[in-house]
Amino acid sequence: MQNVIELNRPNAGRLNWDTIIFVAIFHIVAVSALFTFSWQNMTAAFITWWVAASWGIGIGYHRLMTHRGFKAPRWLERTLATFGTLAIQSGPVSWVTTHRIHHAFTDTDRDPHSPRNGTYWSHIGWIFRGTAQIQPASARQKYSPDLIRDPYLVFIDKYYWVSSVILGGVLMAIGGWQMVVWGVFLRTVLGWHFTWLVNSATHLWGYRRFETGDDSRNNGLVAAVTFGEGWHNNHHAYPRSARHGLTWREFDINWVQLRALEMLGIIKDVHSIDLSEEIDGVKALKKAA
Prior knowledge:
Blueprint: H1 2-7, H2 17-31, H3 39-66, H4 74-85, H5 92-104, H6 119-123, H7 137-143, H8 151-158, H9 162-199, E1 210-211, H10 220-225, H11 232-237, H12 253-263, E2 283-284
Antiparallel strand pairs: 1-2
């Protein structure tokens, strides 16, 4: 694992030119969406953003597959993983492996995207150099053994881009190229930056409820654009909790959706913490807002 640790630093490892070119093209095409506004295009962008970022990344990749905050039937886990591929942030095994490494070594040199190495690095620079999301087999086996046992997750991890190609074809048939620009390119670029704000902004700005030993913070603005993922200090204090927003002011859309699934009997064993209960293991810095 030493090679992975060394590559989790700025200026370490080779430049990932394929990623740099791909991200640049998406940004350029996304800008063109500003000249082709329509309510139909905006609706397509919003729906695909909600499916990819909320159900796919926040609920699927993060709260279910990374932290096992609840139990879901296999069909649902695979569905959420497929939704996650629409965000074009790599496949489920790669994403989960990187995020589990982040939690294991938060804000140290072993963290894939620590702001202590610079805001640019934590936000976007880390995907341009070194391992980025391309974790070696040794890291995947160590940090994601539960996922690599599922052949479907391994398959879509390798071909995670296929779902976006299919989506692009559907949007092309419905609304033409302009809808593809909004529903794939613009939505993806905004989704990237919103997710990366969790890596950068929520380790730099916001308030801390718990003494977690890292720089994690709760940031309402980031929570607003990530369906609740911005309550990051709460999350680092209790990573397995599927509930990130702990008060009524910390609105957590992903948690609301999970509660709905729980009440419908679709998911079970949902882990959550309640500030009204005694909290062990983590020192509270201040009372709930």
